Amino acid sequence: MTDFFEGIAPVRFEGPETETDLAFRHYDPDEVVMGKRLEDHLRFSVAWWHSFAWPGGDPFGGQTFQRPWFGDTMELAKMKADAAFELFEILGQPFFCFHDVDIRPEGDSFAESERNLQEVVDYIGTKMETAKTRLLWGTANLFTHRRFMSGAATNPDPDVFAYAAATVKSCMDATKKLGGQNYVLWGGREGYETLLNTDLTREAEQMGAFLSKVVDYKHKIGFEGAILIEPKPQEPTKHQYDYDVATVYGFLKRFGLENEVKVNIEQGHAILAGHSFEHELAMAASLGILGSIDMNRNDYQSGWDTDQFPDNPREVTLAYYEVLKAGGFTSGGTNFDAKLRRQSLDPVDLVAAHVGGMDVCARGLKAAAKMLSDGLLESARAARYADWDASDAQEMLAKQGLDAIHDTVVKADLRPEPRSGRQEILENVVSRYV
């Protein structure tokens, strides 16, 4: 145990009228929405890296946070785990996520780092025996260390490829041991800075081979969770190969992995790719690869991924509308890949940030559920495409060639006029629920 969160009681649901800072206004985990408890819909997760490992730096300044567990010893790693589970108890969220380097100190060799990982995993496992919080997913950090400056799977040095593969093997073992429900690969350095020194074909083949080995190992060890790729277009590299959901799907199809791998979609990454969050979610659902989400937001005045806690109910509502329309999460969930602002130094800030994010998500999901149940958007969508359900339209689409279609247009003297998409009306519909 630590005294880091001393004096902060477990957060309770008090309703919209409460004036308590550390209370839920909209998130009642036992509230039933569309036949399911809110906790089971949202499946909240705390990110170990931002909440416990991040020192509070930015591109222009270093550490601002002072945490008693910062340092590279096993004792401090276990103190960090103690603090993490204290926060989990305060928030009552059902899941957490981690990278290997978040939970264990770096060793002088790969073997020592692996032993450190195994020891901390065992320690976390003992803590999970008396906690409600489970592991949503694990992953490997293949981007921070200088050895990964030119990529991991896509590195021109085969020794780095091998080191990355060995690291993922260790992290998959750790994830399985802790009962993780997914395993995520984020290719933070899988891209390039300049084409002048990059072989795109070779690097794609390496990346495909790497992912195939991950899938093979999943089946070898009997890991029942999903393998997820997290799309991101840029930052830190100029161009990353897992640019967006559509790009990832094309990559999966190229290597025959579209039935083996899904996506973990982050709101901030969607924005960097020039999309909305709901677009990426809808695209993933359409392609059958929607797995899980990282919930955060960007500062729209900044040009990078600022990883702020969500605070926009309308954005969140539209996102959960797509999740619910796709049937909701199975093994996935809502991971807060979000960090405090570097001026927010105190333990209470970390609790309050998660409380606010959980409330905004709960508010958004409930609005999305009501919107989906009422069916106004779906009925308008169906009406817009209704003529395609006619037999002649279906025959044209499935059977007729251009010559037959041409003859029909000439014979019927077709002169179609444009029809309103009624966008503003539908935007007003959404506003009724938010």
From TrEMBL:
<keyword id="KW-0859">Xylose metabolism</keyword>
<dbReference type="GO" id="GO:0000287">
    <property type="term" value="F:magnesium ion binding"/>
</dbReference>
<feature type="binding site">
    <location>
        <position position="266"/>
    </location>
    <ligand>
        <name>Mg(2+) 2</name>
    </ligand>
</feature>
<feature type="active site">
    <location>
        <position position="102"/>
    </location>
</feature>
<feature type="binding site">
    <location>
        <position position="337"/>
    </location>
    <ligand>
        <name>Mg(2+) 1</name>
    </ligand>
</feature>
<feature type="binding site">
    <location>
        <position position="294"/>
    </location>
    <ligand>
        <name>Mg(2+) 1</name>
    </ligand>
</feature>
<dbReference type="InterPro" id="IPR001998">
    <property type="entry name" value="Xylose_isomerase"/>
</dbReference>
<keyword id="KW-0413">Isomerase</keyword>
<feature type="binding site">
    <location>
        <position position="230"/>
    </location>
    <ligand>
        <name>Mg(2+) 1</name>
    </ligand>
</feature>
<keyword id="KW-0963">Cytoplasm</keyword>
<feature type="binding site">
    <location>
        <position position="269"/>
    </location>
    <ligand>
        <name>Mg(2+) 2</name>
    </ligand>
</feature>
<feature type="binding site">
    <location>
        <position position="305"/>
    </location>
    <ligand>
        <name>Mg(2+) 2</name>
    </ligand>
</feature>
<comment type="subunit">
    <text>Homotetramer.</text>
</comment>
<keyword id="KW-0479">Metal-binding</keyword>
<dbReference type="GO" id="GO:0009045">
    <property type="term" value="F:xylose isomerase activity"/>
</dbReference>
<feature type="binding site">
    <location>
        <position position="307"/>
    </location>
    <ligand>
        <name>Mg(2+) 2</name>
    </ligand>
</feature>
<dbReference type="InterPro" id="IPR036237">
    <property type="entry name" value="Xyl_isomerase-like_sf"/>
</dbReference>
<keyword id="KW-0460">Magnesium</keyword>
<dbReference type="InterPro" id="IPR013452">
    <property type="entry name" value="Xylose_isom_bac"/>
</dbReference>
<feature type="binding site">
    <location>
        <position position="266"/>
    </location>
    <ligand>
        <name>Mg(2+) 1</name>
    </ligand>
</feature>
<protein>
    <recommendedName>
        <fullName>Xylose isomerase</fullName>
        <ecNumber>5.3.1.5</ecNumber>
    </recommendedName>
</protein>
<dbReference type="GO" id="GO:0005737">
    <property type="term" value="C:cytoplasm"/>
</dbReference>
<keyword id="KW-0119">Carbohydrate metabolism</keyword>
<dbReference type="GO" id="GO:0042732">
    <property type="term" value="P:D-xylose metabolic process"/>
</dbReference>
<feature type="active site">
    <location>
        <position position="99"/>
    </location>
</feature>
<comment type="similarity">
    <text>Belongs to the xylose isomerase family.</text>
</comment>
